[in-house]
Amino acid sequence: MMEQNRRPRGASPGGDTGIDEAMIERLVRTFYGKARADDLLGPVFAAHVADWEAHIAQICAFWSSVTLKTGRYSGRPMARHLPLPVDARHFDRWLALFEETARKLCPPAAAARFMAHARAIAESLELGIATHNGRLLMRGERYRMDAPGRN
Ligand code: HEM
User: Core-most of 34, 37, 91, 114, by most CB within 10 Å?
Assistant: First the structure.
């Protein structure tokens, strides 16, 4: 539907998708409930996040900046993830849980917007983590911690 792509002047950046702060918080809280209970992701979060309310507030600010352009987040996501013991498996699980949650809680256009950002950011984090661990990935190649590096 073409008219959905046109936004009236002054409308909020998330306007045509229905994304707002309340939707972001529901998505983030539900996602972290699943991620913390997950056998692969749970232990990583447990080892690195001490104050969950502070973390959730930061992640909400992050998604608010990304989808609503509010500028509420100023942080360094890449630097935070570089030391984490994660690879393609973790990112695939993260994206699967995030997508399952977004599709359940958000209208389709909003879920699509969240997923487009999440996939792009996950890819760049995975690339950064691989490089940080001495692996230069070829285009489309995934990072596996247990695979011997060829470079
Ligand atoms: C393998 C999947 C992932 C794991 C296990 C993971 C884990 C973590 C952990 C443990 C922290 C806290 C780090 C610290 O405070 O020292 C963190 C922070 C954060 N994560 Fe992730 N993450 C993953 C993927 C992602 C993705 C795909 C995004 C974005 C789409 C994301 C966005 C963030 C942001 C914005 C922060 C806050 C960084 C800051 O302190 O400013 N993460 N993550």
Answer: 114
